[in-house]
């Protein structure tokens, strides 16, 4: 896919990128995400942070953090991977999607909107040390798309593994086979945004293909990465019963134990005219997920809703009680239901 004709206001040489190969006439081909941009000399790829500098692909955002915060892991959201723990969460600017309703557009679309590649230079060792100092069990690459700052993820992630921390992607899933293979050396879990099940709408609203997302999701599962899936339900975009049922059936066909987070949309970025998702729509999606055979379905962005909690798929006991991002009680022993002993899928600390 050709790269766009625009470029950041200021281009420095950055660091040599990974996962690319030389093309014809000075072009380079990026092998990191499913766009597989063919990039002309002096131009960026679709993500705007990987640039062809004299026949070599360079990254402009390596170790340049635009965000670094401690979050409850449930905020990512991960409900079946070390629930109740803290995650040191980092991001750089940039994204390989252009979602019209992006909730973090100020940083994910910073290069497109403001022609800026700002960030604070932060050594990987400092990231890992900060995570340990703040009692975090994981490092999450989140807020924007981790694929586009892959070199930072890898540098930090390998050090984190050595220090006994685990690594999480919150991702749109648009990774190539090569990227997943390389990420599997440090990546433990991924929450994949599955934004719908209609390719034409994916292209119009997000600037990407459904096929690329599904392939990335399946590659992560095949690589033994723990996967959870989030669908932000947007009125008039992906909230039809047919589309939500299609997502549920697809996920159940892959693995019944995949947690599916159905999240409430709030107006943002270029879709300010839309209303927030009715709770009834989320509850219908929840029912469709259970009807399709999914063991774990969640209602997100509705604090206090019973759909935030985890139920045993065998005996329906509430094994983890949540309100917002807070765990108020557990009824589990060694990763199993405290009542019937059935294993609860996931990675648990107890």
Q: What would you note in describing this structure?
A:
With 350 residues, this protein is α/β, with parallel strands linked by helices. The chain has two domains: 45 residues, no CATH class; 274 residues, TIM Barrel (Alpha-Beta Barrel). Helix content is 25%, strand content 24%. The chain has nine helices and 21 strands. Strand 18 and strand 19 form a beta hairpin. Helix 3 packs across helix 4 and helix 8 packs parallel to helix 9. The radius of gyration is 20 Å and the shape is globular.
Q: CATH superfamily name of the largest domain? A: Aldolase class I
- Tell me the name of the CATH class of the largest domain: Alpha Beta
CATH topology-level name of the largest domain: TIM Barrel
Determine the fraction of residues in helical runs and give it as a percent range: 10-25%
Give the DSSP E fraction (strand runs of 2 or more residues).
15-25%
Say how many strands there are.
Answer: 21
- Principal-axis shape equals globular
Element order: H for helix, E for strand: EEEEEEEEEHHEHEHEHEHHEHEHEEEEEE
Report the uncertain regions: 1-11
Q: Tally the helices: what do you get?
A: 9
Radius of gyration: 20 Å
Main sheet overview: 8 strands, mixed
Give, in spatial order, the strands making up the sheet with the most strands: 8-9-11-12-13-14-15-16
Number of domains: 2
Output mean pLDDT: 94
How far the N terminus sits from the C terminus, by CA atoms, comes to: 47 Å
Overall structural class, as computed from helix and strand content, comes to: alpha/beta
């Amino acid at each position: 896919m050709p790269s766009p004709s625009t470029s950041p206001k200021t281009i420095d040489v950055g660091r040599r990128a990974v996962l690319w190969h030389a093309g014809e006439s000075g072009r380079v081909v990026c092998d990191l995400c499913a766009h597989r941009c063919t990039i002309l000399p002096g131009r960026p790829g679709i993500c705007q942070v990987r640039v062809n500098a004299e026949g070599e692909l360079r990254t402009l955002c390596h170790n340049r953090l635009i965000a670094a915060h401690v979050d409850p892991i449930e905020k990512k959201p991960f409900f079946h991977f070390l629930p109740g723990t803290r995650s040191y969460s980092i991001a750089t600017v940039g994204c390989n999607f252009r979602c019209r309703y992006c909730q973090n557009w100020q940083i994910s679309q910073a290069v497109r909107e403001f022609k800026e590649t700002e960030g604070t230079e932060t050594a990987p060792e400092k990231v890992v040390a900060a995570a340990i100092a703040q009692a975090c069990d994981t490092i999450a690459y989140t807020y924007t798309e981790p694929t586009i700052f892959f070199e930072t993820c890898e540098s930090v992630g390998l050090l984190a593994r050595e220090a006994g921390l685990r690594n999480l992607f919150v991702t749109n899933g648009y990774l190539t086979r090569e990227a997943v293979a390389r990420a599997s050396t440090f990546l433990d879990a991924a929450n994949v945004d599955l934004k719908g099940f209609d390719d034409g709408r994916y292209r119009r609203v997000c600037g990407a293909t459904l096929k690329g997302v599904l392939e990335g999701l399946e590659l992560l599962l095949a690589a033994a990465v723990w996967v959870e899936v989030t669908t932000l339900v947007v009125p008039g975009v992906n909230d039809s019963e047919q589309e939500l049922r299609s997502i549920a059936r697809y996920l159940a066909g892959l693995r019944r134990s995949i947690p599916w987070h159905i999240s409430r949309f709030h107006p943002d970025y270029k879709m300010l005219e839309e209303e927030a998702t009715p709770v009834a729509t989320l509850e219908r999606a929840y029912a469709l997920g259970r009807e399709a055979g999914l063991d774990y379905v969640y209602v997100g962005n509705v604090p206090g809703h019973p759909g935030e909690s985890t139920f045993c798929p065998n005996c329906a006991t509430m094994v983890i009680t949540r309100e917002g991002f807070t765990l108020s009680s557990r009824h589990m022993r060694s990763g199993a239901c405290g009542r019937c002993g059935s294993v609860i899928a996931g990675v648990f600390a107890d």
